[in-house]
Design goal:
368 residues; 15 helices; 71% helix; rod-shaped; proteoglycan
Length: 368
């Protein structure tokens, strides 16, 4: 009653053993493909982790720099500005990780929150009544009167250029892991599992436990079993080329590191611009939002404190070099894996599975 290992000679197999063999080859194929995938997956996961760690480090560095700008130069609004600053960097982080948001919405939301503070603490420091309605009016007015000049738009442009490639690379790496995981758990067809049993276990039914499949026979079986997986070859090669392109984009003129490190300077320039145009802004705001309550007495506008750029070169250069080196190493490794799916059958038939340098091997029906 054997279905797979039918042979003229007496056999030591049963139908139940054939079923056990089918379960065994399914398990073994999954384990073999997992072993092949392990190094590739390990490299991609490792790079995702290294990329995110380096990115978070740069982000914290940029956020701390921006917070210290408010604490040193714009102390009257430092406490209230802490939350908008935190939100801005959280939004940037979420954007990189693929959230449904844009750099423009994150930056403009920050400047919307910043304007009421700049207006009431720096331009008109005598304002006492900053009601919700008045604050909201200031937020909405910011979009019409553009108090921060071209600095807010410049910040959007610079960050968008540099963060786009990082976002795409992050998504591409996650996609790579998804593809590898899917191929690991690709179901074997009934015909394939029968062919694998015939190749690996049918000799056992004849008592030939040491004989192994012929190389050509193994390749034919594996190519048949893995036809759907090897069809990924063209797309995988294209995927590697895309990774290379994105890594080069990240390392090009609009670098992530430079853009993040420059956020505080863009904000500083924007605030200075608003302060210098304080009287015109006040006149427009009074017409649109009305005049808020003022403290008694003559309070002059807060002094404009230009902040000179502080170069924390050592930390910045180390993070910059680290990220660049990791990118280069990773792309060189991935380029070597271009033929991963084209050669998967050959790699599975390599090693202990087949008989090499021997005069006898199993061809599916007999020892030859």
């Amino acid at each position: 009653d054997l279905q797979i290992c039918q042979h003229r000679a007496p056999t030591c197999c049963t139908k139940k053993m054939e079923e056990s063999y089918q379960a065994a080859v399914r398990r073994e194929r999954t384990q073999s493909i997992q072993a092949l995938n392990f190094e590739l997956k390990y490299m991609i996961v490792g790079h995702i982790t290294a990329f995110q760690e380096a990115f978070e480090s740069l982000l914290r560095f940029a956020e701390n720099r921006t917070s210290s700008l408010f604490e040193t130069a714009y102390r009257p609004m430092a406490k209230e500005a802490a939350e908008p600053v935190k939100e801005l960097f959280t939004d940037i982080s979420l954007y990189i990780l693929g959230a449904e948001t844009t750099v423009e919405s994150a930056v403009l939301r920050f400047f919307d929150s910043l304007f009421p503070l700049v207006y009431s603490r720096l331009i008109n420091p005598g304002i006492t009544d900053l009601s919700e309605d008045y604050t909201e009016c200031l937020r909405l007015t910011r979009q019409d009167i553009n108090p921060f000049g071209h600095y807010s738009k410049n910040m959007v442009t610079e960050l968008s250029k540099s963060l786009w490639a990082s976002r795409m690379l992050s998504q591409a790496l996650s996609l790579g892991i998804e593809v590898i995981n899917t191929t690991e758990h690709a179901a074997l067809s009934k015909e394939c599992s029968r062919a694998l049993v015939r190749m690996q276990y049918c000799p056992h039914c004849q008592g030939l436990t040491l004989i192994r499949p012929c190389v050509g026979y193994c390749l034919n079986v594996m190519r048949g079993c893995l036809a759907s997986v090897s069809e990924l070859d063209a797309q995988w090669r294209e995927f590697i080329s895309t990774l290379e392109y994105l890594a080069n984009e990240m390392a090009a003129s609009h670098e992530l590191e430079v853009a993040l490190a420059g956020i505080w300077n863009s904000i500083n320039e924007a605030i200075l611009h608003a302060q210098l145009n304080g009287p015109q802004l006040s006149a427009t705001v009074d017409k649109v939002c009305g005049q808020p309550k003022q403290q008694e007495g003559n309070l002059s506008s807060a002094n404009i404190v230009p902040v000179k750029e502080v170069t924390e070169t050592q930390t910045f250069v180390m993070a910059h070099t680290s990220l660049n080196n990791k990118r280069r190493e990773f792309i060189n490794y991935m380029k070597r894996s271009r033929t991963f799916y084209a050669s998967i059958a050959e790699r599975l038939c390599d090693g202990d599975l087949v008989m090499r340098d021997s005069s006898t091997c199993w061809n599916g029906e007999d020892v030859v």
